[in-house]
């Protein structure tokens, strides 16, 4: 209980700090959403409408920043993330909810596939160290050094432009309407294949290399030697003794990866014109859309913190030494 209380206090402080930075950082940027909006709509907005927008966004010249910060917390506690100026004054919550499923569906599934495949392959290579399977490590490591945008462009050039196997952009055909049907779901999978492969290929090397190195370290431990001396099957030694301990550092990295799923892969979503949170964040940054930027950053922060809490619980459940050190 003491371990979980200390972690809870730490995460509450981290949440407060992240929300505070989330509020002040956009306001320290050059420009503001009203100026950006007027630049896009020159001569189309009356002075009265401009003043109303300033009041709505809390950007009155005589209003101190500290007062805006207090009001921001009040709105946040009521679940009001404000309205997005770049999306026609639509509620920020609705804009985020429209984009969130696309990011979770694409980046989430790709990350899960990459983690399980990379961890499994790394476990096998670590167990069979010195075998021909080692050639996978340099190949996967090389592919992990390729930037998302570069590999994405290669994917589009080869599999979309040259071969014509997959579409180059968007999440589904514009002739379809989102609905729970096999026609629509299959079309989404078809459009998401190239961006998903881009994420899997570029992230697979890290999981393989990390698990392989940890397996080599764990295999030299005494408890693994004792398990082998008892005559246990190789499968049981690998799964119950070696892999169970070797995977612990992977869990922390996996938790962070799950957290950043919500943020999406900004460059990847831009390249494939995928309607996820990453693309929405890019658009909000260009438009100086404070409420939308803050809302997306808040969702990313919460997802990372929740993922770390889950990782702490899983780590403590798998490794009793963590709980003992916290007491």
From TrEMBL:
GO terms for cellular component: plasma membrane. It holds the Pfam family BPD_transp_1. SUPFAM superfamilies: MetI-like. Residues 100-311 form the ABC transmembrane type-1 domain. It is a multi-pass membrane protein. The chain crosses the membrane at residues 9-29, 102-127, 148-168, 188-209, 254-275, 295-318. Keywords: Membrane, Transmembrane, Transmembrane helix, Transport. The keyword Flavoprotein does not apply. It is found in: Cell membrane; Membrane. Belongs to the binding-protein-dependent transport system permease family. PANTHER family: OLIGOPEPTIDE TRANSPORT SYSTEM PERMEASE PROTEIN. This is ABC transporter permease. The lineage of its organism: Bacteria, Bacillati, Actinomycetota, Actinomycetes, Micrococcales.
């Amino acid at each position: 209980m003491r371990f979980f209380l200390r972690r809870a206090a730490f995460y509450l402080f981290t949440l407060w700090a992240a929300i505070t930075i989330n509020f002040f950082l956009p306001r320290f940027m050059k420009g503001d959403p009203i100026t950006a909006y007027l630049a896009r709509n020159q001569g189309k907005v009356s002075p009265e409408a401009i003043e109303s927008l300033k009041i709505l966004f809390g950007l009155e010249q005589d209003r101190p920043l500290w007062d805006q910060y207090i009001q921001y917390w009040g709105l946040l506690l009521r679940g009001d993330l404000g309205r997005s100026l770049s999306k026609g004054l639509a509620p920020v919550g609705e804009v985020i909810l429209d984009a969130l499923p696309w990011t979770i569906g694409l980046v989430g599934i790709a990350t899960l596939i990459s983690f399980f495949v990379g961890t499994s392959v790394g476990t096998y290579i670590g167990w069979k160290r010195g075998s021909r399977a080692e050639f996978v490590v340099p190949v996967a490591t090389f592919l992990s050094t390729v930037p998302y945008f570069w590999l994405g462009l290669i994917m589009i050039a080869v599999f979309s432009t040259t071969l014509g196997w997959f579409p180059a952009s968007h999440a589904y055909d514009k002739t379809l309407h989102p609905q729970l049907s096999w026609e629509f779901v299959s079309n989404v999978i078809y459009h998401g294949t190239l961006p998903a492969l881009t994420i899997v290929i570029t992230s697979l090397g890290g999981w393989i290399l990390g698990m392989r190195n940890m397996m080599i370290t764990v295999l030299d431990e005494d408890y693994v030697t004792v398990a082998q001396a008892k005559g246990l099957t190789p499968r049981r030694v690998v799964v119950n003794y070696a892999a169970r301990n070797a995977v612990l550092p992977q869990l922390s990295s996996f938790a962070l990866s799950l957290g950043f799923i919500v943020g999406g892969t900004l460059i990847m979503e831009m390249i494939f014109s995928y309607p996820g949170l990453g693309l929405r964040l890019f658009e909000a940054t260009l438009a100086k859309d404070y409420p939308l930027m803050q809302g997306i950053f808040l969702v990313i922060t919460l997802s990372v913190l929740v993922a770390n809490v889950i990782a702490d619980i899983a780590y403590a459940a798998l490794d009793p030494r963590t709980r003992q050190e916290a007491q």
